[in-house]
Specification:
The chain is α/β, with parallel strands linked by helices. The chain has a single domain (3-30, 80-387), classed as Alpha-Beta Barrel (TIM Barrel), CATH 3.20.20.370. Helix content is 30%, strand content 12%. The chain is built from 12 helices and 14 strands. The protein has helices at residues 96-106, 146-161, 186-201, 203-207, 218-221, 233-242, 285-293, 304-323, 343-355, 366-375, 378-384, 397-400; strands at 50-52, 57-59, 80-89, 112-115, 165-168, 224-225, 247-248, 252-253, 260-261, 264-266, 269-273, 280-282, 330-334, 361-364. Strands 3, 4, 5, 13 and 14 form a 5-stranded parallel β-sheet that branches. A 4-stranded mixed β-sheet has the order 6-7-10-9, sandwiched between helices. A 3-stranded mixed β-sheet has the order 8-11-12. The protein is globular. The relative contact order is 0.18. The model is unreliable at 1-44 (pLDDT under 50).
Length: 420
Amino acid sequence: MAATQRIAVGAMVAAACAASLAGCSTGSDGTKEGASGPQQGAPAPGSVFRPIGDGSTAYTGSQPNLSSPERLKPGQKPPQFVVFSWDGAGEDSQKLFSHFRKVAKENNATMTYFLSGVYMLPEEKRDLYKPPQHSPGRSDIGFNDEQGIADTLEQVRQAWLEGNEIGTHFNGHFCGPDGGVGTWSVDEWKSEIAQAKKFVKSWKSNAGLKADPLPFDYDKELIGGRTPCLEGQKNFMKAARELGFRYDSSGVDDQVWPEKKRGLWDLSMQLVPFPGHTYEQLTMDYNFMVNQSGTETQGDPDMFDYWGDQMRDGLLKGFYRAYDGNRAPLIIGNHFESWNGGTYMRAVEDVVKEVCGKPDVRCVSFRQLADWLDAQDPRVLAKLRTLNVGEAPRQGWASFLSGRPAPAPRGVPGAPADKA
């Protein structure tokens, strides 16, 4: 049965998406060969500093705390990649952005933070946002205040310096048939993307804050995102490809090896076992919540621990199914929210702590995963995609991937260095 037919009641959550800071979507230690994980101790940028625009951002050189991807050697077992990602990432009074930065560092992980552009725009300047099919100044997740912008800026700055990725969750988070992102044209998506980038690149002018610039060129840093409510993927991908994006995480898929669609890596959300149910669940906190307490974000307190355990155990079942099986990357999506007493935040943290230190496991950002995928022989990736969910090669990995891969083309990550 097709993946999208097995979401059960989770398919209905888009219409109930809560308007909150985080927005919502429905739907061995160390670095080793074949890995694209963080390299601790790399120097921070500083030898280069070139302000951009009004000084809200600046080019400071290559991102620190990253390692170069390596091609799999013949017969080498693939690493198990796990991506923890956050929709509408921002720092508010819950301090969850700063908390999970700490969790990531303590567990040798990097993550992807999908920043919403309107979190860089103060309420009094809301009319600068001109959303497609809506009046200027409209946003289903609101805007921000000076303190919220300053706090989010600090978290984004430190996250990037630690090797994490800053992606985008766009701006106003419009869902449904009445002007929602699923109804937008390619040109409307281009406008939304341009505005999301502009608000990040002009927070000094818009908010009047005197703070250090973000240490990256967002036009080059931004290579992927996840659409609100997982809607509008087709036209978004067309726009994103033309704008130089490299991946999208707005779809729903099984736990199989990714492939490129419309020129982008399709790093979709995935379906994993849902303990106590016969159907599978999307790897996102919001979907677990809706299938537990409905649209009530604070349900029965007596169920909080059980619901969190249910999400944790479902994600872990999905992890071990891949880790002991086809080694397909596990894609997990979340929000900085305290739904049902914060039980989903506890569940995600438990998963990070259990899986990220295991041998051959690489907890990485989407950027790092895309870099690794680009470094591989396409024939090897094609063979990996022949493995079904949870299916390990019957003859063993050494035999399954024994063929000698072709050399990477010049300029592709993992290509041999030019001889002097």
